[in-house]
Protein: LacI family DNA-binding transcriptional regulator
Organism: Saccharothrix xinjiangensis
Amino acid sequence: MDRPRKPTLDTVASAVGVSRATVSNAYNRPDQLSAALRERILAAAASLGYAGPDPVARSLATRHSAAVGFMLGQQLSTSFSDAALSIVLDGLASTVDGHDHCLVLMPGRDRGGPRPETVARAQADVVVAYSLPDDAPALVAVRARGLPMVVIDQPVLPDTARVEVDDFGGARLAATALHDLGHRRFGVLTFALRPDGHGGPVSAERLATAPFRVTRDRLHGYLEVTGPQPIWECARSSRELGRAGARELLSATPRPTALLCASDELAFGALQAVRDLGLRVPHDVSVVGFDDVPAAAYADPPLTTVRQPLAEKGRRAGELALRLLDGARPGGPTRLPVSLVSRDSTATPA
Amino acid sequence: MDRPRKPTLDTVASAVGVSRATVSNAYNRPDQLSAALRERILAAAASLGYAGPDPVARSLATRHSAAVGFMLGQQLSTSFSDAALSIVLDGLASTVDGHDHCLVLMPGRDRGGPRPETVARAQADVVVAYSLPDDAPALVAVRARGLPMVVIDQPVLPDTARVEVDDFGGARLAATALHDLGHRRFGVLTFALRPDGHGGPVSAERLATAPFRVTRDRLHGYLEVTGPQPIWECARSSRELGRAGARELLSATPRPTALLCASDELAFGALQAVRDLGLRVPHDVSVVGFDDVPAAAYADPPLTTVRQPLAEKGRRAGELALRLLDGARPGGPTRLPVSLVSRDSTATPA
DNA sequence: GAGTGTGACTGAAGCGCTTCAGAACGTCCA
DNA sequence: TGGACGTTCTGAAGCGCTTCAGTCACACTC
C-alpha cells in the first residue's frame, strides 16, 4: 500500500490528452491556448490534486527562484531580539512583500556570518548581507556562486550594490555634542570588534584590525573627538553585557563623566549601571547611544542617541536587490544620513 | 563578449577526465572515491570557479531542499516588531540553525496569512504555520502541495503536527485572580477576531464566529469567569491601538475596575490609557496582559500577565518539523503549560 | 485558387544534478 | 589457480518543468 505518486504536469497532460507544454502554458502563459482548453486543464488538475508546477523544477528550468536571501551576522536565535536588525528586516521585507518573493534567512554562526555551506545550499536569486565581518567567508561564497549581492554596512566589494550609513560622522556628532558640553573624561562601550566572543578592554591594535566596519567606524568617530579613551568591548550588543561593561568603565578613577555607547542597547545597560552605582543620568554621568531604536525614546531618562534610518536602510537594500534581479548593474553606494537626537540622558558635567 | 557560462558538474568532470557521477560523489559521498582523485577534482573545481552543486538542481534530484518554511499571519513588515512572534521565531530558529537548514519566511497578506501563490512557489520541505485564521487559504495550499506541516496555535488539521498552549485556561487563570481580588466590572481588550481590519466593540456573534482560535479562546476564558463584559477589538496587537481601545472601555459608567487584555502589547497601551485619564494602576484600575514578553517585567508598573513559553513553542515546532522531515508521523498535539505571573498591575479594587 | 496570415498546440531539447546497477580491476585466501 | 569479495569509477535513467522552433488547420485576401 504505497502512497500514490504525486501528480505532475505529465499526469495532467495525459489525463486531458494534451501535451505537457500545453499544461505548462495553462499555468504560465494563458494567452497561448484557448480559454476553453485552459479551463479543462485546470479542472483536471484540481480533480487530480495537482497543486501547480513544482517550484523547484520550475526554478531549475527558469533559472530563478523568486527568493531573496538575507545573511545574518548572528544566529537567528539572537537576531529577532535585536531591535535595530528587526527594523532593517522590516524595511527589507516591506519591499520584498510586494513582489511575491520569499525571504530566505541564512543564520550566522556566532558572529562570523553564515557558513559557506549554508550559502552554497540556499536557494535565492540575490542575497542581502547585513553587517558581516569584512572577511566573512559567506561573502566569498556568494561571490563564488555568482549571485548578485547587496551589502548593508559593509566595505566595498567589487560588483556589489551597497547601502550604508555614515557611522563615523554620526559618532563624531555625538562625541562633539558631549565635548561641547564640557565633558573630557569618557568611557566608550562597544559591541564586538571581532567575531571571537571576546569581551573586555580594547587594545589599540585590536581596534585597528577589527573586521567589523561599523564598530570600527563608530569608535573612530568617538575617539577622533575625544582623543584616546578607555574602551570596553561586549561580545554582543545586549543590555546585560552593556550594564556589566559600563560598570567596569565607571569604576575608573577619576570616573568618566560620559559614556559613549556603540548602540542603544548597550546604552540601556549603561543607564542601568549608572543607577546601580547610586548615580544619576545625566547629572552624574551622561550617556549617548547609537541607532535610535524606538525604545530609546521611552528609556529612563529618554536617551540621547544618533539616529540612523534603519527602516529606510532595509527598504533601499530591498529595492536594490530587486533591481539587481532585473539585471541592473550595481551602481554607486547609497548613503543615508544620520543625525543626533538630543534627549535627556546628556547634560553638562556636574 | 558574452559572459562565460557558469561551470557545472560536467565542466569539472571533463576537465578532470572523469564522469559526472564521480564529481558528484566528490561532493556528496567522499567515501565513494579515492582521496587522491577527490583532491584533484576539488582542486580543478576551485580553479574553474565551480562553487559546488547547484542547490536547485540538487533539490530537484533529491526531492528535498534543506529549508523550513514559516507562514506568518501578518506581513513581514509588522512581524518583526511583534515581540511574542519574535520570540517564537527565535526558538524555532535555534532548532533549525543546528541542522543547516534555512528558514523561508512567507509573509502574510493583511492578517489572512500568505497568499496561496506564495505558498505554491516557496521552496521548503516542511512548513510551520503560526497563528493563522482557521480558514486561511494558505493552509489549504500547503495541503495541496502535500508538504508536511506543523501548526502552532491552530485547530486540528488532519495529518498535521501541532504545538499549542492552553489559551483558554490561561485566560481563566487571570480572570479568576482578579475575580478573587473582588473585581466585578471588567473591560476586555482584544486583538483581531477576524482578519478584516475591523476595530471597535465586539458583538456576541462576531466573537462566536471568530476564525482566530487564539483570540477566541482567550476571550472565552476571560468571560467564563467574569460573565458577559464589554469587549473592545483592536485590529492589531499594538500599544497604540490598545491605548485607544482602553480609553473607550474606561469611559463607561460605572468605570470598569479591571482591564483584561488579550496580549501584553495591548496591556501596555492600557497602562498608558489609565495614566492618560489621571488614574493609577493598580489603585484605580487593575490591568492584566497575556504572553509575558520580556517588556512586561519592565513595564510601569510591572505587568501581571499570563506566561506562555514562547521560545519553547518555537523550539518544539522546529523539532517537530525536523522530525517530520525524517519521515515521522505527526502524532498527537504538544501542549505547553501556561501560568499566571503576578506583578504589580493588579490589586483589590479601590 | 494560390498566397498569406494567424491562433492553437506539440516535440524535443534542455536546466544541473543524484543515484543505482553494473563494469573493471585488484586482492586475498583456500 | 580460481572464485569471492572490495574498491573505484561509469552510464544512463531520471527529477518536473520551460521554451522555442515548428506543424497544422483554418480563415482571409486579392
